[in-house]
Amino acid sequence: MRVSKVIGFGALNVDNIFKVNNLSLAENPAHPVDVQAGGNAANTITALAKLGVGCGFVGVVASDAYGKLIISEFKRRNIDISRIIFRKSADSLISSGLVETYVDKRGRRMLFVKPGVNGTLSINEINSDYFNKASVVHFTSFVDDQQFHIQKMLIKKIPDKVTVSFAPGSLYAERGLKALEPFIERTDILFLARRETYYLTGMSFKKAVEKLLTMGPRIVIVTFGDKGSFIATKGEQFIVKARKVKVVDTTGAGDAYAAGFLYGIVNNFPIKRCAEIASALASFSVQKLGARAGLPNRKELSAVVSLAK
């Protein structure tokens, strides 16, 4: 069995990207500009693979044009697709996951999700042993309840020697702390945007971080967009500033941040350096439309932050 350092587990989507003048609900022309493979964990895994980290993925696609795009992008980055399920799409109702992404002139975004075959993944199709030889398993959200419960069961089975990272996003954070407790208890590295800390706990972000650190995670990271990020462990807390760049689109910025942080983790870098790499990688992401167009290779990233051991 092929061994991957980092394995992603989450929804696999294609992003249809549109530019709009603003994000108001009033009549507003939308101009299609690109189609890209996406999905939160998939974006993180793609970013890591582009930096040379061996990666794999667990998920499901249809055998339609979107599914083929998702798989071709993974193959291009030499990502292990042996645990991705393929659904035959002879029925027009069976399609790969699709996200319509609307981006305004300030780089802000609005998303509409059609989960497609992501909602069909069953626990019998997943071999949990695949996770056991990884250094890191990175969990992100699905839309449907069934996959939420599958992840909740599987995360408990991952041995302690494997680092579990979890980026719940708004979809899972809005379920609340009680629903996510089984995830958080087994999570080592927790990634949250500031608004998600409130959705999850109903507390200010600092009180939320204090609470979360008592529940299992050894590192809790809260991102603030262009204001930087707050990183906390039981022994230290610090802020890393965001790099000043021209923001074109914030789609996937959090996914890129997670990739940078996990790159540091698999290379055994100090936590502060992990966060600096994360911030640098996210700054590349926001300078292009879509989650992946701006992702750097190792040489490009090392030009702005040290990757040397």
For the largest sheet, list the strands in their spatial order: 5-4-1-8-9-10-11-12-13
What is the number of helices? 11
CATH architecture: 3-Layer(aba) Sandwich
CATH H-level name... which superfamily? Ribokinase
DSSP strand (E) fraction?
Answer: 25-35%
Helix percent band: 25-40%
Q: Radius of gyration from the CA trace?
A: 18 Å
Query: What series of H and E elements makes up the topology?
Result: EEEHEHEEEHEHEHHEHHEEEHHH
**Would you tell me the overall average pLDDT?**
93
Distance between the termini: 29 Å
Please state the overall shape, judged from the principal axes of the Cα atoms.
globular
Biggest sheet overview: 9 strands, mixed
CATH overall fold name: UDP-N-acetylmuramoyl-L-alanine:D-glutamate ligase
What is the level 1 CATH name? Alpha Beta
Structural class: alpha/beta
Pfam family, one: PfkB
Keywords: Kinase, Transferase
Domain Carbohydrate kinase PfkB: 5-297
GO molecular function: kinase activity
Overview of the structural elements:
The protein is of the alpha/beta class and 309 residues long. Helices cover 34% and strands 25% of the residues. It is built from eleven helices and 13 strands. The strands form two sheets. It has a nine-stranded mixed beta sheet, with helices on both faces. It has a four-stranded mixed beta sheet with strand order 3-2-6-7. The two termini are 29 Å apart. The relative contact order is 0.14. The mean pLDDT is 93.
